[in-house]
Structures are given as C-alpha cells and as structure tokens.
Design brief:
Elements (H helix, E strand, L loop, with lengths): L7 H32 L3 H12 L4 E3 H8 L3 H14 L2 E6 L2 E9 L1 H26 L5 H9 L2
Antiparallel strand pairs: 1-3, 2-3
Helix pairs in contact: 1-5, 2-5, 3-4, 5-6
C-alpha cells in the first residue's frame, strides 16, 4: 500500500496559489466595476475587443477568440452575441470553410476599446498598488511585477 506524504513544498505551493487567486479576484472585481460603470462593457467584452483589435484584419475564428479570452465555445458565442447587439462586432463566415465563423470588430468596437483602454490600465495599476500595500499580497504583487 502506497501512502502519499504531505510535503512542505506542496503546502507552500498551495499558499502561493491561494495568494495569486486572491489577487486575481481583487483585480478582476475592480476592473469589472470600472469598465461597466465608465464604458458600459464587461471585462470579457473588453478582453475580446482587445484580442480583435490586435488580430490581423480585426478578425478571429470563434474558437481562437475563445482560447485567447479563456472561455468555452458556447460562452464565446454568447459574448460575441453581446458585442454584436452593441454594434462592436459581427460574425462572418470563413470563405474557405462555410462551417468556420469569424468574429470581426467594427469601427464602433475599435472606438469603445480605445476609450476603455485607459481606464483598464489605470484601474489595473491602482488595484495592484492597493493589493501591494497589504501585507498578505505585497510579496505576490512584487514577484509578479519583477517578472516583467
């Protein structure tokens, strides 16, 4: 019979991961609130617009967008539906493969992204600064910033 022993490294990894998750939740909450309040978009919408702005020809296959944003296929379909309803993106069929669907950013989507980009950057820095000033997260923020 094999038993798994508890190792200090595993406990240390779990503690570190817990801090990363706490920091992530803190930052995501701040970004979500600011983007919704100032620009009327959610964090997922902002991230999708960012991916589309930087994509060649402003378009990505739906699966590629899902991978970049960290969503599943059905979630990205709903996300692109919201972008479409807001006038920020539209769906287009792949010319070589009629089963392939692209998400394409519109000029209005580019404008909304450009307007929101400054807010995102400011709130991200402020949230990291705030978290970095707390004893529980200071080391985590410092480690992440030094890894740039």
């Amino acid at each position: 019979m094999t038993t798994t022993s508890y190792t200090p490294a595993a406990a240390s990894d779990q503690a570190m991961w817990g801090k990363v998750l706490t920091l992530h939740a803190h930052v995501e909450r701040q970004l979500t609130q600011a983007l919704q309040r100032k620009h009327g978009i959610g964090l997922s919408e902002f991230r999708a617009l960012e991916c589309l702005v930087h994509a060649k020809a402003g378009e990505l296959r739906m699966q590629e967008l899902a991978d970049k944003v960290g969503l599943g296929q059905s979630s990205v379909t709903r996300l692109v539906g919201r972008l479409f309803s807001a006038g920020f993106a539209f769906r287009d069929l792949c010319p070589g493969d009629k089963r392939g669907v692209y998400a394409v950013i519109t000029d209005e989507g580019k404008e909304r992204y450009a307007d929101a980009r400054g807010t995102y950057s400011e709130v991200l820095s402020a949230a990291l600064n705030t978290a970095g000033a707390t004893p529980e997260l200071a080391g985590t923020v410092q480690a992440l910033r030094s890894a740039r």
